[in-house]
Amino acid sequence: MSDTNNPNGFVQKLKVNKIIVHQIITEMHSSHVELESSNSLMKLSEKEETLVNELNKRYKKHSTLTYAIFDDNPQPKDFQFLLDNYLDSFDDEDFISFSNKSIEILKKDLESKSASKGGYFVFVDYEIRDRFIGIFLIRNTNGQILKKINDTFQVDELMHIDFEKLAFGCRINLKSYQNEESKDRYLAFVQNKGDSTSKYFSEWIAIKNEQNNKVDSEKLMDICTKIEVPNDEKGNQMRRDDFMKNVSEYCSNLKGQNLNLWDLGRRFYPDDEYKIINYVDNNNIEINRNFKPVISVLNKFLNIDAEAENIKIKFPKKYYKSKKVELNKDKTSVIIHSTELAKKILQEQSKDEN
Known about the structure:
Layout (H helix, E strand, L loop, with lengths): L1 E3 L7 E15 L6 E4 L9 H15 L5 E5 L8 H9 L4 H20 L7 E10 L1 E9 L7 E4 L2 E4 L12 E6 H4 L9 E5 L6 H8 L1 E3 L3 H12 L15 H13 L6 E2 H8 L6 H8 L7 E2 L3 H5 L3 E6 L2 E6 H5 L3 E3 L6 E3 L2 H15 L1
Antiparallel strand pairs: 1-2, 2-3, 2-5, 4-10, 4-11, 5-6, 6-9, 7-8, 9-10, 12-13, 14-15, 16-17
């Protein structure tokens, strides 16, 4: 069981339940595709757990990570259908069958598309807070990282793996996927946009991109209400409302272009560019790494600041929508629903009486 460091001070345990690897070998500008498949699971050791841990870390920090769901109406030979068969039992043999049958489907697809690159496909059932099925495509460039021994691959050497150029990765959150009432986007994937073949892999898994800019914008501003606020240019810690206003202005200045969470992190946390990404991961927040911010959604999180008759009031706009602060029916009085504020007023009043 591997440890994954966490900036919040606790250690996350990554547990590998099952892992199997298949290799697809292709030829440039040719429809010839060769499959080196495994018929048994990898024997688990520290090297295998390190491999999964490294893949999981690179996957989570990938700049293209996008949340989605499966396409509708899976057919008996589809990836999703084969996955469901495994999830009915969680049996070792069913996991082997799921990986073998699904990689055979991909092989046939690639034969019809003259794909230029193959690689090692790592199928893994693992846990880190929740349970996941992960499929990662990796390529070694400088040496052998996996070797075939009898009927299965084993990790030979980790130092040569090109983790930084993970060609494709997909992770399915089983808790969300198996909960029929959940509206969570249970499937997340990354792909190297410079890789001419990576799009075939998302088609193979039948990913239905459920990008929702409104939801992602709401989650961004919710993050901004809770994450540690950064320092300003003078090194002083910002006020929360100033930070949120600056984030909103940053998004507005994109003028309809996509927001990248890494760029946002570098802008506001130059000494810790993964601050936002780590916060997202450590709190299981499902937000796309790239999305088009909805400015009207961002603005609702900013403050209302009003003053009249020697009374000054300042509160986030979302409090008005949730009726924590509201007007009476004829809109002539302000009503504030706050037990703590009422206590403060009573405390101040009691000082005068004493």
